[in-house]
Each structure stands twice: as structure tokens, then as C-alpha cells.
């Protein structure tokens, strides 16, 4: 031991003796002179403390009373010593640390912290001893206690079921548990809250957890409830969208009892849509034959799924029937007895029935019932025949509407011609005065839309042929519109004519029946049934907020596409000067400012996701259940590219993980939206900018190819979910490192000296993905033996992040999600501000992931374009993760020396990870 350390320890022991003497003096003073015995005073929370083995040895032998922290430290130091040297070794102690409410003991030079259970037990004991626990430590206890309660269902004695949704702490003195209450008669769910301590006290007496079978059955009920709400909304939407009023209908006799509600005490006979489609009134009778009415609205719709299925079927059939009847009345003739009759003016059949009968006319009686006729004989129609009849009437209606437009269009131009401000300029009129629902109005709208579409996209990449071809479509539409407009204006000036009001009414009626536009159903939503989506939706909102917040950061490094080339060049030059002033480089490499900017952007992107994950712990780094990002020709990105593109896709909310290069844009003659920012990828040839397919006009220009690509990706993702790649990682013969399942869940470790990976047993994990995350972290660390021996704190923190990112890259290949059980604040700080740190983390993780994958496949790793070997040996190395860049010369010398040491010690130590994996 150094002398300074010895004297420091001696001073601590003397100070301890002094405090013991004072304590004994005060105790005897109280015994001699008495005094009131006060209630125990609250004690401050124990501060951080580091225990040396010598201090622990002294504390274990002194007869003086020890504080609770000292007792735990003695016990932990002794246990760590035995674990380090074995039970047969002479008694001794290892270093122990108490920091932030966590006790850690050093085993084989590495700190091993208490697991969550041990940590909570110690905090509870301190609380019982009247120590004042900070809010952070209180939250740790509460979350641990709530772990077995949250997201579970509980049943009360009266049959109500409660779902524990979340624990709310905030600034409240007592945390509350958010619950959703379901009653036997109402499964819509009502939000309630209860004090967390009260719930714990009532646990197992008032609130009984559901068994797995009961929970599965209840989840089935909730699924039915969600489907019932969807069905209810579909009924309302169908009613609102229908051009013909739908108000009521009857329930078939055979369905009445089958769909009786309230345990058969109410038998529904008919339904009625009330309050504009927002409520459904059911009329029927009770089991005692009394008239009864039941009203279904958005609050209780979830309780009547089977009944809503029947009503929706009735509404849909009635809409089609009424639409067909209205078309017959509009296209045909009214008979003196009030009936309507339609026969096609052409001597052909309207349609052929499934049995081959030609239907030539249709009759609608006074009650609105449809009758198909063949040579004036009634023919019974099947359900398929009814659909054929409707389609035939719609086609004939469209033909009739076009004929009527030809007769009406010239007189209808009156308002537009009179609005012309310049007589010789046909475009000087008010386009709002063009006849509605006509071809000229449609041409005007199409020309305007193509103009807007052209203006929406930036001419990027700058290519005159490219821009001219897109503009040609707009010009073509403009020419067609101009010619038609001139024809109609000239025709009106020659012979304006008069509008036939009867034909106009018929024309408008046909348009209403044939071209009705669905309207959104405005209805109050009950979100309690969608609790399972709460985290995802809130996470997305937070991600959007983070995206807005980070735009200012990104804009200082990546100029928007709409800025001029001169401004962009000037901006980059300014930033290059600022960055180069702040960083020193070794003499072996030329500074690559643009590459540093890209890595800084990558770092910020990863830091944003880590910050988001602190709020939503179950959110994975990337959704690895989906397919890997691909190029337009369906080649999958790998390594760093796959990781950062997945982050970018999820941050921006893109559905398609397809990216196009600028070469793709030119080849396919595509344009990019003005507000779209490219995403940079680092390749050997330099920085390649790519755009997500949703940032381009690909869907507009190639609608069929886009739909096909979308369907292929969806099919591929469905197939990916069926294929189980996880067993690939559980092949012990593939790994040179031993894998021991003797550790703790969420705490993977790697012993570089013994070349052993330690993880928890698979049955100890709540989620399968978490087990494979720990296994992947251990495998990544096993490829970095030399780095694992650096026990400096910053280096350990950095290795933790590298193993996490590498595990996620493995997760992308093998389709398991990677969450972050614990984080270091250093990660986000360095990632946001140090491009070298971000580059070192990503490149190291990618190389390690490629090495692990090569062991799985038995194929020598091809590091590919996404790992520039100049970057794989970074320009500036921060080997210990402290933010200070080592000199390149010293690093190379260290590497040569380390190579020699490895060769000399191969007999007793494992070889470097590159050699070991290259040999397989």
C-alpha cells in the first residue's frame, strides 16, 4: 500500500475511536444525570463511502457499534473475497463501495453491484431505521413493489375486475396506482386511482390476481369489446356516408333470441338510428312480454358485439338496396300507381343472374322493394345477383350523367363567362364560378393539383431534363384544360341557351347518388380499451417532440436541401473552421470534417433514442421485429447503416424502410419534397446521401410498383416473424468463449482473463428478448478482450455502450428487440458533443457484430461498404472513453507492443479477438 493511503486509513481509524469515546461519554452522562427519553430523530441518508480491505478488517474486529452501512460493507467485503479466492483461502476482505444507495463489492477487479432485490431490501431496512430516503430511492422501492402489480388484472369480491395501468409518483407525498375498472355489466372501462399503500394493504384480501386462464378469458372479452366499438363506429360512418337516409330496420325472428341481451331478459326486434348516427335505439320486449328499449352509444357499445354485427349487416344491406331503388327512380319513369320502372334504352340485358337469366328491367314498389324482371316476369335474386344489379345501375347512371352534362354544360358556363375581367383572356374568370360536378371543373382541379405537385418538390438533384419531364405533365394537363375552357366559352358566346331545370335536377341527383364522399365520424372516443397502445402512442408523441427540439441541433451541421449552393458552401466552410479550431489531429491523417459531422448526427440520433427510452423503459432501441432497411433494389443494409437508418425511420415515422440514393432518383426520374432532408451514409467512396421512399414522389409516379413493393415488404415481415433465428445464438460449439448461465438477469458480464461470459438463466427473464440481449452483449464483449481489461471508469462505461449497440445490431439480424436496463448519463453527453466518441462506438460495435455473425455462419466476415477501414482504425482514438483523444503514434506503438505480449502469453491467455475469430 502507498504511504499516503496508509496514513489516510490511520486517520480514519483514529477519527472512529474519537467518535466512539464521545458516544460513550454522552451515554454515561445520561445514566448519571438522567434526562427525558426522546423519540428517535430522523437521520440523514448515508453519504457515499469507499471501504478499503484494511478498514473492513479493522471494523470486523472492533468491539464498538457499527453503522448499518459499515455492517453491510464488512459482510459484502468478506463475501467478495471468498468469491475471488475461494472458501479455502485465509480470511480477508475485498474493496467495497456505497454510492447513491447501491452497495458494490469488487470481484476480480470489477465492481459487482447488488441486484435489485438486494438493493431494495437495504433501502427498506434504512427506512425502518428512521433514515430519510431521497425521492429517487423511494421511487426505486415503489417501482420494485409495483413490478408484480402493474399490467396485471385483479378481481374483487363483487366481480369487478381492475387493470393496474401505472404508478404515478410526481410531487405527491403518497404515490397513486392508476386503475381501469370493468364491471360484470359494463366492459367499457372507467379510470380510477387508489393510494399505492392502500392497494398493497388490500392485496389478496380485496384485490385477488386473476389466474392465467382467467386473464386469457378476460382478454378475449376485451378483444370482443374493441371489435364491437369498431363495428359501432362503422355503423355510424355508413349511416353518415349514405346518400340515402337510413333510419331503422328489423331483426329477423331467428336472430332475435340468438342475440338477446341481459341474459335473455330483453329480446330485440328492431333498431333505429337516432341523433345523426351517434346512437342506436333497440326496441323489443322483456321475458315477461313488456315493451322495452335499449340505447347503444359509444360508451356501452363494447358490451353488445354480437348484436352490433347483426345491425351492421342490416344497415349495409339497406344502404345498397335504397341506393339501387333511388337509381331506378332517377333513371326510370314514375308509374301512375306510385311505382318506378326502369328499362335500359338499349336493347340489351341489364345483367345476367347466376342461373343465366337475362334481367332487362327493374321495378320499385311503393314500399321501396326491388323486383328484377325478365320479359315482365319476376325473377328471384341471390345475394350475388343483388350486387350485380347495383353495379349495373351504377354503370348506367354514370353513362346517363355524362349525356346530361353534354346538354347542360354550355348554359351552365354563364356565371364563369360573366366573371371574366379581360374579355380576350379566358383564364381571367373566377374558377369558383365553373359549373360544379362537371368535366371542366375536374380538368381545372387536375391542372391545379399537378401545378401544386410540381411546386411541392425541389429540383434535386439539379437536372434540367429531370425537371422538364415532370413539368411536361403539368403543361399537358394545362393545355387540355385551356382547350376545353376555350371551346365552352366560345360555344356560350355563340349560343348561350337556357338551363333545363328538370335535367339539371336529374344531373345533380345522379351525382349525389354516384359520387358521395365518405365523411369522418365525429364521435367521442373511449381510450380505456386501447390501454395497450398507450406507451407506443405517447412514445411516438415524445419522439416527435424530440425531433422538433433536435432540428436546431441538426440544422447547424446538415444544411436543408432548399438552401442555395452558395449559402450551403459558405455554411459548411464556417462550420469546418469552428470544428477544426476545437480539435487537434495526429499528423498521419487529414481532417475529414464532413465525416465528423455525419458521426455527430449519428450520435445525436442515438442520444435522442436513449433519452426517450428513459421515459419508456419497454421501448427497444429499434424495432427489430421488422425487416432490415433496404435499398430500392431490395438489398438489405447491414451493420452501422442498418442501425442508423432504422433509428431515422422510426424517428420520422416512416412506414417504409426503403431508401434511395441520388443515383436512384436520377435513374427513376424522381423528385424530392422541398422540406425533405437527406440522410448521410459513410461509405468507402465518401458520404452518400439517401432519402426515404416516402420523401419522394415514387408513389405518385409509379403507383403500381409502389403498391407491389409495399405488399412485398409486409409479406416479408410476416414471414420473418414466423422464422425463429434465435437458436442460432445458442450454439456453444460456435464460440471460443464459455457461456455460463450463473449470473443475474439484465447484468451480462465478461471475464477476459478466463474468457467466460456470465448471464442469467433463461427461465429468470420475464421476456425472451431480454435473455438474448444479455447473451448478445456477452458475445460482443468476448470479441474485445483487450478493451475489457481496461478497468478505468470511463472505459467501462464506453464498453457497456458498445456492447449494447452491438447487441442491437445482432438483434436486427436475428429479430429480437434490445431494451436498455440501465443507462449512464455520460453516454448521451458524449454522443451529443463528441463525433469521435460516436464513431468509435458505432464502428467498434459493427466490427464485433460482424465477427459474431461470422461465427454463427462459419463464413469469414466481410466488413462491407458500411465500415470504412480508415474509420475502423479511427483518426482519433479515445481508448479509455474519457473524452480525451490519444495520439496516433502512441496508439500504434501500444498496439505493436500488445501484439508481442499476446504472442508471448498465448499459452496462458486467450488470443486477441481478431485472430480467434479469423481462424474459424
TrEMBL record:
Biased composition (Basic and acidic residues): 535-560
Region (Disordered): 531-568, 892-920
Superkingdom of origin: Bacteria
Protein's name in the database: DUF1738 domain-containing protein
Gene source species: Segatella copri
Amino acid at each position: 500500500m502507498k504511504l499516503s493511503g496508509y496514513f489516510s486509513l490511520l486517520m480514519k481509524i483514529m477519527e472512529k475511536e474519537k467518535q466512539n469515546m464521545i458516544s460513550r461519554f454522552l451515554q454515561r452522562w445520561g445514566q448519571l444525570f438522567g434526562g427525558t427519553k426522546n423519540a428517535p430523530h430522523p437521520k440523514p441518508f448515508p453519504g457515499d463511502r469507499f471501504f478499503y480491505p484494511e478498514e473492513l478488517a479493522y471494523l470486523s474486529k472492533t468491539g464498538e457499534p457499527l453503522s448499518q452501512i459499515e455492517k453491510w460493507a464488512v459482510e459484502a467485503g468478506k463475501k467478495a473475497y471468498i468469491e475471488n479466492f475461494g472458501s479455502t483461502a485465509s480470511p480477508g476482505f475485498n474493496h467495497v463501495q456505497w454510492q447513491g444507495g447501491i452497495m458494490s463489492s469488487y470481484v476480480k477487479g470489477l465492481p459487482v453491484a447488488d441486484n435489485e432485490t438486494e438493493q431494495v431490501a437495504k433501502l427498506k431496512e434504512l427506512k425502518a431505521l428512521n433514515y430519510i430516503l431521497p425521492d429517487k430511492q423511494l421511487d426505486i422501492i415503489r417501482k420494485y413493489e409495483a413490478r408484480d402489480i402493474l399490467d396485471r388484472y385483479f378481481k374483487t369480491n363483487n366481480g369487478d375486475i381492475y387493470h393496474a395501468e401505472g404508478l404515478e409518483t410526481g410531487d405527491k407525498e403518497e404515490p397513486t396506482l392508476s386503475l381501469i375498472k370493468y364491471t360484470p355489466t359494463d366492459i367499457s372501462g372507467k379510470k380510477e386511482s387508489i393510494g399505492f399503500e392502500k392497494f398493497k394493504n388490500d392485496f389478496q384480501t380485496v384485490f385477488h390476481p386473476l389466474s392465467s386462464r382467467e386473464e386469457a378469458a378476460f382478454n378475449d372479452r376485451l378483444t370482443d369489446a374493441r371489435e364491437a366499438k369498431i363495428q359501432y363506429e362503422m355503423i355510424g360512418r355508413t349511416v353518415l356516408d349514405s346518400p340515402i337516409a337510413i333510419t331503422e330496420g328489423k331483426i329477423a325472428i331467428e336472430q332475435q333470441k340468438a342475440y338477446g341481451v341481459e341474459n335473455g331478459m330483453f329480446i330485440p326486434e328492431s333498431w333505429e338510428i337516432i341523433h345523426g348516427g351517434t346512437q342506436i335505439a333497440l326496441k323489443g320486449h322483456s321475458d315477461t312480454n313488456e315493451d322495452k328499449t335499449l340505447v347503444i352509444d359509444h360508451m356501452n357499445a363494447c358490451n353488445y358485439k354480437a348484436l352490433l354485427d347483426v345491425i351492421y349487416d342490416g344497415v349495409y344491406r339497406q344502404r345498397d338496396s335504397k341506393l339501387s331503388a333511388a337509381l331506378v327512380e332517377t333513371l326510370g319513369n314514375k308509374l301512375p300507381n306510385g311505382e318506378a320502372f326502369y328499362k335500359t334504352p338499349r336493347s340489351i340485358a341489364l345483367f345476367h343472374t347466376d342461373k343465366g337469366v337475362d334481367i332487362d328491367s327493374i321495378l320499385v314498389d311503393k314500399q321501396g322493394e326491388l323486383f328484377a324482371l325478365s320479359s315482365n316476369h319476376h325473377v328471384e335474386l341471390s345475394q350475388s345477383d343483388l350486387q350485380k344489379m347495383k353495379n349495373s345501375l351504377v354503370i348506367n347512371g354514370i353513362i346517363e350523367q355524362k349525356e346530361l352534362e353534354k346538354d347542360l354544360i354550355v348554359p351552365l358556363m354563364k356565371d364563369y363567362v360573366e366573371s371574366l375581367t379581360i374579355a380576350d383572356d379566358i383564364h381571367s374568370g373566377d374558377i369558383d364560378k365553373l359549373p360544379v360536378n362537371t368535366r371542366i371543373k375536374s380538368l381545372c382541379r387536375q391542372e391545379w393539383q399537378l401545378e401544386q405537385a410540381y411546386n411541392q418538390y425541389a429540383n434535386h438533384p439539379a437536372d434540367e431534363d429531370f425537371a422538364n419531364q415532370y413539368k411536361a405533365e403539368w403543361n399537358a394537363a394545362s393545355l387540355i384544360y385551356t382547350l376545353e375552357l376555350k371551346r365552352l366559352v366560345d360555344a356560350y358566346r355563340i349560343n348561350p341557351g337556357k338551363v333545363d331545370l328538370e335535367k339539371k335536377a336529374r344531373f345533380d341527383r345522379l351525382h349525389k347518388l354516384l359520387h358521395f364522399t365518405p365523411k369522418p365520424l365525429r364521435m367521442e372516443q373511449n381510450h380505456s380499451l386501447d390501454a395497450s397502445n398507450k406507451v407506443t402512442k405517447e412514445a411516438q408523441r415524445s419522439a416527435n417532440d424530440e425531433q422538433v427540439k433536435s432540428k436546431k441541433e441538426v440544422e447547424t451541421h446538415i444544411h436543408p436541401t432548399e438552401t442555395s449552393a452558395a449559402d450551403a458552401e459558405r455554411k459548411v466552410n464556417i462550420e469546418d473552421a469552428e470544428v477544426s479550431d476545437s480539435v487537434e489531429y495526429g499528423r498521419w491523417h487529414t481532417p475529414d470534417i464532413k465525416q465528423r459531422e455525419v458521426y455527430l448526427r449519428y450520435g445525436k440520433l442515438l442520444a435522442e433514442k436513449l433519452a426517450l427510452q428513459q421515459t419508456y423503459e419497454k421501448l427497444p432501441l429499434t424495432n427489430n421485429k421488422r425487416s432490415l432497411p433496404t435499398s430500392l433494389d431490395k438489398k438489405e443494409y447491414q451493420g452501422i447503416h442498418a442501425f442508423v437508418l432504422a433509428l431515422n425511420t422510426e424517428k420520422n415515422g416512416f412506414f417504409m424502410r426503403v431508401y434511395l440514393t441520388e443515383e436512384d432518383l436520377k435513374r427513376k426520374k424522381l423528385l424530392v419534397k422541398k422540406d425533405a432532408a437527406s440522410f448521410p451514409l459513410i461509405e468507402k467512396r465518401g458520404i452518400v446521401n439517401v432519402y426515404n421512399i416516402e420523401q419522394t414522389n415514387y408513389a405518385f409516379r409509379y403507383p403500381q410498383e409502389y403498391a407491389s413493393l409495399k405488399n412485398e415488404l409486409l409479406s416479408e415481415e410476416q414471414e420473418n416473424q414466423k422464422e425463429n433465428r434465435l437458436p442460432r445464438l445458442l450454439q456453444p460449439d460456435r464460440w471460443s468463449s464459455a457461456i455460463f448461465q450463473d449470473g443475474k438477469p439484465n447484468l451480462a458480464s465478461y471475464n477476459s482473463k478466463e474468457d467466460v461470459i456470465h448471464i442469467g438463466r433463461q427461465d429468470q427473464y420475464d421476456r425472451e428478448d431480454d435473455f438474448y440481449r444479455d447473451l448478445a452483449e456477452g458475445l460482443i464483449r468476448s470479441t474485445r478482450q483487450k478493451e475489457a481489461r481496461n478497468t478505468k471508469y470511463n472505459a467501462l462505461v464506453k464498453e457497456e455502450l458498445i456492447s449494447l449497440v452491438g447487441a442491437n445490431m445482432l438483434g436486427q439480424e436475428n429479430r429480437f428487440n434490445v431494451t436498455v436496463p440501465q443507462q449512464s448519463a455520460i453516454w448521451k453527453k458524449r454522443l451529443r458533443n463528441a463525433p469521435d466518441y460516436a464513431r468509435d462506438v458505432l464502428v467498434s460495435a459493427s466490427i464485433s457484430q460482424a465477427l459474431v455473425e461470422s461465427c454463427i455462419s462459419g463464413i469469414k466476415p466481410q466488413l462491407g461498404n458500411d465500415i470504412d477501414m480508415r474509420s475502423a482504425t479511427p483518426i482519433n482514438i479515445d481508448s479509455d472513453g474519457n473524452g480525451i483523444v490519444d495520439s496516433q503514434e502512441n496508439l500504434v506503438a501500444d498496439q505493436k507492443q500488445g501484439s508481442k505480449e499476446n504472442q508471448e502469453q498465448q499459452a496462458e491467455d486467450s488470443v486477441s479477438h481478431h485472430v480467434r475469430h479469423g481462424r474459424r
